[in-house]
Amino acid sequence: MKLLAIDSATEACSAALWLDGEIISRFELAPRRHTELLLPMVDAVLAEAGLQLPQLDALAFGRGPGSFTGVRIATASVQGLAWAAGLPVVPVSTLAAIAQGMIDAQGAETVACAIDARMGEVYWAQYCRNARGVAELVGDEVVVPPVEVPLTPELKAWHAAGTGWGVYADVLRERLDSQAVDIDGERLPDSREIAKLAVDAFSRGVAVTPEQALPVYLRNKVTHQRGGKL
User: Fold this and answer.
1) Residue 67 in 3-state DSSP?
2) Interacting residues of 120 by C-beta distance below 8 A, sequence separation 6+
3) CB 111, CB 124: distance < 8 Å
4) What pLDDT shows up at residue 221?
5) Which of 24, 47, 92, 162 has the greatest CB tally within 10 Å of its CB?
6) pTM reported for the whole predicted model
7) How confident is the model at residue 178 (pLDDT cuts 50, 70, 90)?
8) Distances from the Cα of 128 to the Cαs of 43, 99, 156, 157, 159, in angstroms?
9) What domains appear along the chain, each with residue ranges and CATH number?
10) Does 224 score more than 70 pLDDT?
11) What is the tens place of the pLDDT at every residue in 29-47?
12) C-beta separation of 77 from 37 below 8 A
């Protein structure tokens, strides 16, 4: 399995090439430089592997939630690459990528992820490690004030990750009734984790055409549900 993953949904910009379990990657904290860095990163990992884009099986991208601009950059980039090479695309949640990072790094079984969404809100989701060792969503991804994050009471001993925890740790910890056993408030999505999740999804037949590779903003969905204007 040969799969290229990209992400630019947060302050981080990254690209990773999955080669039958081996990973070649580039990662940089580069706010406002995603457009400049993303495609050169793609070229770099492909060159290191000695591969051309059409030799891959699929592409993947961080489909959000995250920065509107960053998510759009990744979406447009993966659509263009997929069209050019005739490849399917696997959209991957950036919150799931953060959870996967905690699973791989800390051996976490349950992860509560929060990305700072500005305006006093967080992008929030909870994940469990499934039998395949990958992050599986519990409940829904939402954007809410930290004091209103939904919980799954039967799950305990949460590992916590994401920039939302860096900003709202006290509120979120109280909301989880002190069940957060380990907090990484600086963890960002990485294409290495996006690649791992995408390979698992692709093996289960989860992939879309380039035109179906769409971003997920969450805030637009909530605004629509509330009857507001975008």
Assistant:
1) coil
2) 145, 146
3) no
4) 53
5) 162
6) 0.93
7) low
8) 34, 8, 11, 11, 10
9) 2-93+189-225 (3.30.420.40), 94-184 (3.30.420.40)
10) no
11) 998 899 999 999 999 999 9
12) no
